[in-house]
Design the sequence.
């Protein structure tokens, strides 16, 4: 028993020893092979250096015999040097006669490199073409080579010869290769069609063009290999991109095989299928009424400048840019300026928000978009797609989905479109989940249309950024706008934008365009668009635009404003200026967001007060920035934003009083006045030497502090003069009487400002001169110019404008001077003006 057990146990004891020795030997052999390969690769770097002379390579080609096995290493090194020179951009076409002789070499590695060289230089010049024609029999012979790696190389070289005499031979070779068992050979034949078709450019080549199209159609219909189909569709784009009817017989097959194709082929295939879909499929009957699209349409807003009949300007935000204003009166389509249209009783209608013509009721379940679970309410919803579905709307046959969905219904506005509310994110992937996502809002789709959308949806998870962008483009123009689909689009685009800076720039640009139309897809990813310290400058500006567009909730507004506090400290002053402009946009958006919250909570006054607090806080921060910044552009942007915020605060109705206990608006007006006076004082002043300036600063510290104020840019003087004119001509009951000063102090400020404007008028730019003339006209019409000296200076400014060299300034001054003279009567330099009517009646 023991002997038997020992006999049984002996092999089990010796087996690990034998196995270990075999493994160790195999490991040593593998290590030796890897070391030799690494050393060989390391030695190949010498071919990229200039130590080897071309004469040496030419002598090696001449002396070596391809049929002699001992010459293989020499020829191998020579071919490596040629390929290395080609990669460096060096012209080595003069070696073509030596290389073409190596087509029949016994070494497979050398033959691969030979075909790579011949493909590159087969059509380089006339000499290379003639030598390639002499070797065409060798290329045809290699089309039947036993090695499947040689056959596609031979076909590539054969179809690279651009000689009309061998075109029939090339087409015959392509037809023969399409019957090959290797898919690589058939793929090369499909790619060769794109090279052969441009050569059929003569009148006698129409039959050959038709023959190539028939070959391409045969590949698309009969081929089942994904790599061959993708190459055939690439050739289709090059040969006949408009002949989409060729895809009728293979459309469903392509949709089913879409996910199995290579990544770069998927990009081309998705583009072709998108054009096919937009050409042959009709618009769904429920377009514009899908869940996500209705949400985005309700949340979009526009910023409008409203000009009232009394001449005052009001800045407001409308609720929907897709209103039917192209048929309404009082709208300037060229500039997006909404002008009040008089009502039936002669009064001016309220300009903002713009009221759409067509409305319908829908029930909004607040529990889906907010924390409220059971409450629901009714809202008025405007359907901007009503014109698309109108039975009398003309629609051309074959008109694309995007051409109707993106029809020019939207006015050119001066503001920003934004949605509101969070959207729950869902991870969608696979065909089953794609079917559930498509069935939510895609009930009106054609079966083939739905097949395309379902087949492409799993590609949202592709590693290739180009594929994800192509799928998002397909679903944006041709897909349904359900919440799940747009959530998947947003999630996929945010995922791929965390890549290299080049890819990041392209993806962020696409997101910036999509966020205007479907902002609900990107609302949950607000933090992903925060600017990082290592972001390049071109990425920062795009992210800033996206952040501004996504400020649709109180929490989002607070988060973005907190980020902007950091951005204004950056060293990139262009980015700082863009951040300051973003503050002004967000202040305008905050009013709309809080007004909507007030409508939901039935407390509009409290919501408006919260928006005013945000505006006052931003205004205070910008005023402080003008005091500490030494950069002209930054201060200029601050002045422009200060003007917009003050104008926005003063546009409130009488029901809402802006609570300003810290007199932030008064501080802003004081700062604007100081900057304008400093700018006008510095124009036309002769420069003094440094010693005189230092002595003057020592004698008068106030002058030193005044001269330390940064000069305004020339393009920011005009808006500052406009808001100062509104304040100077405001009465005690006017909303613009925000700068609390006494009457005597206000008179002194007015006189000094007019004096500086008259003195520096010739040095101002065109916009500033026009605003200066307008300021003088307003002061002449107001009660604040009862002082004879101020009226004289105002008439002097108007007379300067009437003789200015700029025709726009001259025409503006003459126009306003004539109106003033006919209405009130001027006293100086009135010879060229229109005289008062003989009956003595003036214009009122």
Sequence:
């Amino acid at each position: 028993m023991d002997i038997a057990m020992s006999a049984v146990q002996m092999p089990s004891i010796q087996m690990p020893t034998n196995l270990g020795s075999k493994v160790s030997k195999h490991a040593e052999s593998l290590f030796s092979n890897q070391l030799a390969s690494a050393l060989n690769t390391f030695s190949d770097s010498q071919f990229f250096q200039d130590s080897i002379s071309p004469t040496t390579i030419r002598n090696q080609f001449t002396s070596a015999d391809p049929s002699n096995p001992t010459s293989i290493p020499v020829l191998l090194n020579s071919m490596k040097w040629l390929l290395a020179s080609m990669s460096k951009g060096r012209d080595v076409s003069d070696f073509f006669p030596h290389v073409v002789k190596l087509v029949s070499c016994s070494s497979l590695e050398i033959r691969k490199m030979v075909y790579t060289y011949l493909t590159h230089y087969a059509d380089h010049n006339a000499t290379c073409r003639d030598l390639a024609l002499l070797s065409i029999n060798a290329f045809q012979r290699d089309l039947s080579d036993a090695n499947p790696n040689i056959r596609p190389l031979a076909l590539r070289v054969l179809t690279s010869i651009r000689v009309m005499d061998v075109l029939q031979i090339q087409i015959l070779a392509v037809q023969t290769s399409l019957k090959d068992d290797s898919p690589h050979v058939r793929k090369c034949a499909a790619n060769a069609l794109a090279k052969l078709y441009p050569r059929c450019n003569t009148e006698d080549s129409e039959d050959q063009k038709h023959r190539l199209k028939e070959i391409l159609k045969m590949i698309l219909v009969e081929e089942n290999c994904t790599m061959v189909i993708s190459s055939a569709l690439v050739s289709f784009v090059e040969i006949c991109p408009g002949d989409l009817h060729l895809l009728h017989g293979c459309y469903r097959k392509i949709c089913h095989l879409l996910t199995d194709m290579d990544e770069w082929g998927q990009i081309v295939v998705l583009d072709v299928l998108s054009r096919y879909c937009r050409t042959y499929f009709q618009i769904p009957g429920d377009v514009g009424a899908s869940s996500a699209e209705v949400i985005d349409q309700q949340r979009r807003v526009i910023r409008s400048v409203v000009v009232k009949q009394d001449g005052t300007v009001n800045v407001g935000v409308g609720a929907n840019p897709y209103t039917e204003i192209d048929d309404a009166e009082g709208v300037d389509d060229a500039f997006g300026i909404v002008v009040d249209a008089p009502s039936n009783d002669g009064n001016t209608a309220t300009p903002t928000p713009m009221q759409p013509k067509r409305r319908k009721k829908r029930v909004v379940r607040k529990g889906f978009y907010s924390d409220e679970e059971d409450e629901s309410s009714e809202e008025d919803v405007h359907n901007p797609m009503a014109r698309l579905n109108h039975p009398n709307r003309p629609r051309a046959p074959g008109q694309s989905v995007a051409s109707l969905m993106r029809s020019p219904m939207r006015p050119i506005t001066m503001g920003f479109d934004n949605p509101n509310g969070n959207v729950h994110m869902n991870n969608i992937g696979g065909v089953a989940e794609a079917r559930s996502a498509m069935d939510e809002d895609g009930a009106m789709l054609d079966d083939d249309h739905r097949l395309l959308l379902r087949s492409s949806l799993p590609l949202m998870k592709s590693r290739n950024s180009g594929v994800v962008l192509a799928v998002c483009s397909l679903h944006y123009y041709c897909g349904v706008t359900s919440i799940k689909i747009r959530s998947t689009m947003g999630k996929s685009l945010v995922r791929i934008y965390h890549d290299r800076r080049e890819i990041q720039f392209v993806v962020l640009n696409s997101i910036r365009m999509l966020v205007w139309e479907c902002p609900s897809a990107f609302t949950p990813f607000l933090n992903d668009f925060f600017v990082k310290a290592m972001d390049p400058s071109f990425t920062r500006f795009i992210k800033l635009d996206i952040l501004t567009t996504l400020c649709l909730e109180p929490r989002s507004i607070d988060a973005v404003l907190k980020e902007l506090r950091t951005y204004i400290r950056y060293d990139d002053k262009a980015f700082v200026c863009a951040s300051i402009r973003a503050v002004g946009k967000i202040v305008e958006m905050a009013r709309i967001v809080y007004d909507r919250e007030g409508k939901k909570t039935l407390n509009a006054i409290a919501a408006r007060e919260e928006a005013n607090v945000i505006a006052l806080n931003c205004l205070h921060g910008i005023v402080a920035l003008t005091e500490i910044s030494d950069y002209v552009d930054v201060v200029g942007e601050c002045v422009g934003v200060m003007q917009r915020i003050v104008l926005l605060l003063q546009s409130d109705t009488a029901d809402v009083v802006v609570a300003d206990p810290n007199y932030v608006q008064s501080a802003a007006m004081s700062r604007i006045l100081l900057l304008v006076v400093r700018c006008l004082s510095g124009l036309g002043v002769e420069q003094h030497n440094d010693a005189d300036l230092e002595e003057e600063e020592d004698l008068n510290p106030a002058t030193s502090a005044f001269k330390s104020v940064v000069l305004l840019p020339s393009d920011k003087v005009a808006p500052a003069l406009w808001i100062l004119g509104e304040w100077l001509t405001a009465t005690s009951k006017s909303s613009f009487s925000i700068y609390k000063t006494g009457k005597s102090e206000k008179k002194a400020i007015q006189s000094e400002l007019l004096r500086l404007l008259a003195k520096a008028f010739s040095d101002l730019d065109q916009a500033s001169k026009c605003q200066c003339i307008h300021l003088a006209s307003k002061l002449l019409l107001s009660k604040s110019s009862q002082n004879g000296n101020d009226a004289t200076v105002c008439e002097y400014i108007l007379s300067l404008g009437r003789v200015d060299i700029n025709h726009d300034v001259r025409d503006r001054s003459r126009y306003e001077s004539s109106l003033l003279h006919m209405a009130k009567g001027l006293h100086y330099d009135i010879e060229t003006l229109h005289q008062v009517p003989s009956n003595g009646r003036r214009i009122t």
Q: What stands out?
A: Strands lie at 302-307, 313-318, 331-332, 337-339, 360-365, 376-381. The two ends are 133 Å apart (CA to CA). The first strand starts at residue 302 and ends at 307.
